[in-house]
Design goal:
alpha+beta; 58% helix; flat
């Protein structure tokens, strides 16, 4: 989500969604922020972690 206004509208909709509990909201916002900064949420052997997106890794290596 590159557009700042669009991102803010999405954040407000997440915060206002009655189906989500506080933990779900925090996870959604954290994943969105990490994605904006060039990371992706990964899962390996039941563990979750953030890793740099491939295009960012390639750009830093060059």
């Amino acid at each position: 989500m590159g557009n700042r206004a669009r991102r803010r509208v999405w954040e407000i909709s997440v915060l206002a969604d009655p189906r989500l509990n506080e933990t779900d909201r925090r996870v959604a916002l954290a994943v969105a922020e990490a994605d904006r900064r060039g990371f992706v949420l990964c899962e390996q052997n039941g563990e979750f972690f953030f890793a740099a997106k491939d295009q960012y890794v390639a750009a830093k290596a060059a």
